Amino acid sequence: MTPQVKETKEILKSHNLKSTPQRVVIYEVMKKLGHASADTIYQEIKSQFHTMTVATVYNVLDSFVGAGLLHRRMSSNNKMYFDVNTYTHCHLYSPETNVYVDYDDSELIRMVGEHLKKRKITNFELTDIDIQLVGNIKQS
User: Fold this and answer.
1) Domain ranges across the chain
2) Contact yes or no for 102/89 (Cβ under 8 A)
3) Among 129, 87, 124, 126, CA closest to 112
4) Is 140 helix (H, G, I), strand (E, B) or coil?
5) pTM given for the model
6) pLDDT at 18 over 90
7) What is the spatial distance between Cα 121 and Cα 63, in angstroms, rounded to a whole number?
8) Are 35 and 72 within 8 A, CB to CB?
């Protein structure tokens, strides 16, 4: 067992999830990709897991969200993407390529939070701030 797989099994266990081979490989792929859809993960693992379906991948990803291991991201192509980084951060999103890139800007999140605290939005309780900047991601 590689150190990465051992770490993944420990992470799953700490979130009260059994470390099945499917869960381990799906979480390993998520760690590698950072942001991915069920279809993307399925393409990555289908040669290794011939009997696994996209629905199974999605169900595993959904269980990871329920356990707090992943966050959901909805794309402009109406596909659900998942984010392995669950700390508070922003995203840069390209609708052309459906690519997400983490963007750390705690000052922006703080400013938006302070601004919204001053506003009293009727019949709404703010529980989180999710900032997504949409544009074209240029390759460097």
Assistant:
1) 3-83, 90-134
2) yes
3) 129
4) coil
5) 0.88
6) yes
7) 32
8) no
